[in-house]
Amino acid sequence: MSGALLVALSAAVFLIAYITYGSWLAKKWGIDPKRATPAHEINDGVDYVPTNSAVLLGHHFSSIAGAGPIVGPITAAVFGWVPVVLWIIVGSIFFGGVQDYGSLVASIRHKGQSIGQIIEATIGRRGKLLFAIFAWVTLLVVVAAFANIVASTFVASPAAGTSSMLFIGLAVAFGYAVYRMGVNLKIATVFGVAALIACMALGHYFPMSLSKTTWLIVIVIYIGIASIIPVWILLQPRDYLNSFLLYAMIFFAFVGVFVYSPQINIAPVTAFDLGNMNWLFPMLFVTVACGAISGFHSLVGSGTSAKQLSNEKDAKLVGYGAMLLEGFLAIIAVVSVGFIASSPDNLLEVLKQKGPVAIFAQANGKFMEGFGIPYSIGSEFVALTISAFALTSLDTATRLGRFIFQELFTTEEESRTGAKPKNILANPYVATIVTLGVSTYLATGSYLSIWPIFGTANQLLAAMALLAIAVWLKASNLEYRMALYPMFFMFVVTFTALLQLIYSYFSRGNMFVGCLAVLLFGLAVALVLQSRETFKKMSKN
Is the residue at 384 inside a domain? Predict the structure, then answer.
């Protein structure tokens, strides 16, 4: 199979879906450009900040993408490239895109509140509590998985690690210049991108080699600080600048695929059962994870992006458009692993030896070589870009985890009046330390041991977000079936996967992760039963 043909067809399908299905969703959900958004109504200069749509798209896309659309599809390719590609396309358009767009719209209609708070308004406080605990546990696994991957990437590519650290200082300077000194965004962008290139050059010529444990400590300290400070100081400017890296990588990969014209060497379909309970259903869907649908996206959309949306019409670009772009990146990941694996038989061996990030970097470094970029520079650039937006997902996940943990220990009266919580666990610093402490413990193993529970928890969170969106839409007398049908499918997939994982973890003696899986399963069942009662009451009324 020609990689160029697959990429071209996928791009065309995604573009058509954005124009047609995305516009249909906007019409059904009553998108109104004249309606004031929470960013303008509240505008506290910390979390609620009206943001240019291009800047917000960069922040949102960088936050949701992470390493997920690369690691997931490459790992899932053991089932064959055809089922992976089909799920990426169908999932991104009708599952992930609907969840991302819907959670963003629901949030801006509730003053930028999180999905958990929307559940409280529609299902009740008990439903919110169940969802909040589930979301926090899921975020622990998200942080653990991505921290592990980023630390491993920095060990394999010290230049990428060094450049990423330099980016942090650049982002702070950029944010101060734009938001406090009033420097024009276009002018600041020109200098910012030039400084990005300079940081990459410094990282290339003066790489800093550290052990994986040391990198993990550095990463944890960084994301802890980033989750506390106002978004304009670091998160927004860093994500905006990193988005240029991401767009450049996707563009270079797109052009490189057509110039190099790689062939996909792996089998279209391998087998339904790969052994050790690795069945195509449900493991394909939870392994692809972010490449098709991700519950983490709903937390980003309702947790941070909704507070920065300047106009309702931008929700389609930020919510639906970013998910389709992530799906396109996942397609390039499939082409990459199909090219690196010299035959269908050695795919698993290649995965164990190199890892998904290295496979993607090496493949796209080779593709870029086709139009004149040296392989060493190209592969280093790709590794840097992946780690840069994985760091973005990390600090966003930590920030969200801190928000949710604080909410769990904040009373209803304190939340309503805005009073300072009395419980020490609602303190932002304590909430951050607890969240990072558990995540760091989980991150010390191999990514292969974390990814199955990460994918399953993440997809189950997506099912819950679709459930919340469906209930909100029904309560608002809006069309809700576009969220209801994907929700049913995702619950069947994730409940089946969780039962398999519970058996697998306990049989191998991995008690801590096994108990996490049991906790997630119990919380999900309780929330479904609670939501079912709410739906029945709505139908009667």
Answer: yes
Report helix, strand or coil for 465.
helix
> CB-based burial of residue 213 (10 Å sphere; 0-12 exposed, 13-18 middle, 19+ buried)?
exposed
Within-domain flag for 35: no
> Considering the entire predicted model, what is its pTM?
0.87
Report the distance separating Cα 537 and Cα 541, nearest Å. Answer: 6
Secondary structure (3-state) at 263:
strand
**Residue that is written with structure tokens 């994500």 in the block:** 239
Partners of residue 279 on adjacent β-strands: 273
Beta-carbon neighbour count of residue 269 at 10 Å? 12
Q: What angle do CA 147, 153, 159 make, to 5 degrees?
A: 125
- SS3 call for 45: coil
| C-alpha dihedral sign at 341, 344, 349, 355 | positive
- Residue 493's Cβ-side half-sphere holds a number of Cα atoms within 13 Å equal to 30
- 525 falls within a domain: yes
Helices vs. strands in the chain: H and E counts, helices first: 24, 0
Domain of residue 243: give its range: 3-24+42-540
Q: What is the pLDDT of residues 173-224, one digit of tens each?
A: 998 898 888 888 889 989 988 998 899 889 888 988 899 889 999 999 998 9
Cβ-based burial of 27 (10 A; exposed 0-12, middle 13-18, buried ≥19): exposed
- Where does 96-184 have alpha helices with state H? 97-108, 115-122, 125-156, 158-179
Tell me the H-state helices in 355-480.
356-369, 375-408, 412-417, 428-443, 447-475
Helix (H) or strand (E) holding 490: helix 481-507
Tokens at 123, concatenated:
């299902």
Which CATH number is 349's domain given?
1.20.1740.10
Asked, for residue 352, whether it belongs to a domain, the answer is yes
Q: How many domains does the chain have?
A: 1
Give pLDDT tens digits for 465-482: 998 899 899 888 999 999
CA triple 429-430-432, angle to 5 deg:
65
